[in-house]
Amino acid sequence: MGKRQTESGTIHFADYRKTLGVELVYGYQITHAFTRHTHRTLGFGLVEQGVRLYSCLGESYQITPGQFFVIPPNSEHSCSTVNRQPHTYRLLLLSNDVLQASGLISDEYNYICKQLVISNTDAYNRLRQLHDKLDSDETEFIKKSLLLSIVGYLFENYIEAPIKVELSSYHYENIKMIQKFIEANYAACFSLEDVAQLAHISPYHLLRLFSQIVGIPPHVYQQQVRIRQAKQLLSQGSSIFDTAMSTGFADQSHFTKVFKRMVGITPGEYKVSFRFRRGFNPAEV
């Protein structure tokens, strides 16, 4: 992540355009006034501390913590503080190419934002957590899945009408095929686009269909399969490090974090507890 220190606060930049099609901006204790300008891409911003004055499309808004705002592409806008009091904000800029390739928009799409400032705690928290995930050590498959899932949610509620998908036997067969692919390749490194191509649908529609039919998104399903296999290996005496590497995790630390989140205890604690549970088959859980 790049960093720019100014007299009016600190701004961090993270460029994931080549891998995820997004840019992240984190402005800490900012008092700088950003004069009128435009972005070529769609942006979602949020305020964590203080108040941000946002002017766009002839209207001005005072955005407070818990609110987030939409910046339409190629729309002139300005941002500043109120009475030069510092504020902290985050900004997510989305590539149009990625939105088109993911199936969220068409080539002829013109953005129609229902509202520019939104007060919704659930949506705010999802957007805030997305920043942490995109800047974490999670796999690209997980990051892209979370990105499209959350941005799709924002599109449906604040950018365009929801897309209704009527399920058919063809959809069920496709998702069953994707499940089998993930189960057979759970430790491999593949992208959301790779999986979507197998089903001959866009990545975003894959996420919607998979969640509708299976109940969870494909990246969570992959993690469940990985952890299920990891429990089997640990029960057979495999070391934590070897288990992490065998099941596709980047390192032992990341494996331990995911394992505890999904199982409730660490891999080490699981190995100890398993010694006292004879006859237990972890593959059945």
Automatic annotation (TrEMBL):
Keyword DNA repair set for record: no
Keywords: Activator, DNA-binding, Transcription, Transcription regulation
Positions of the HTH araC/xylS-type domain: 176-273
InterPro entries: AraC-bd, AraC_XylS_family_regulators, Homeodomain-like_sf, HTH-like, HTH_AraC, HTH_AraC-typ_CS, RmlC-like_jellyroll, Tscrpt_reg_AraC-type_HTH
Protein name from the UniProt record: HTH-type transcriptional activator RhaR
